[in-house]
Amino acid sequence: MLRHEFRPGRLVAGAAFVLAGAVYAGDAGGHWETPWFAVVPVVVAGLCLAAVTGLVARAIRGHRDGKPDASADRGAGPGAEQSGPAGPARPARPAGS
Asked: Looking at the predicted structure, is the pLDDT value of residue 57 above 90?
């Protein structure tokens, strides 16, 4: 059973940062020479790809996982009185006045 929702955009962003770390680790280990600026395109491309992946995943999944609208959150319609920390709210004004 999943404990959280799968987010493919975060997976792609994490993979880009792991790749950047592996490039610097190879340089530190003496396997190859890496200039300091070589990782910038990897990270930027990874973040752009992660953004596109996240947007595509959201479009496929839809907005069903989003926040409910304000009236459904409170359980009352637009004309109902609300009771808050300062006491009951004023009743809604009629549309004609």
From this structure: yes
